[in-house]
Amino acid sequence: QLMKVYVTRRIPQEGMKILTEAGVCKVSVWDSDEPVPRAELLKGVAGAHGLLCLLSDRIDTEVLDAAGPNLKVISTLSVGFDHLAINEIKKRGVRVGYTPDVLTDATAELTVALLLATARRLPEGIDEVKSGGWSSWKPLWLCGYGLSGSTVGVIGLGRIGLAIARRLKPFGVKRLLYSGRMPLDALLTESDFIVVSCSLTPETQGLCNKEFFSKMKNTAVFINSSRGSVVNQEDLYEALSSGQIAAAGLDVTTPEPLPTDHPLLTLKNCVILPHIGSATYSTRGIMAELSANNLLAGLSGAAMPSELAL
Ligand code: GLV
Ligand code: GLV
Question: Is this complex scored with an ipTM above 0.90?
Answer without folding.
Answer: no
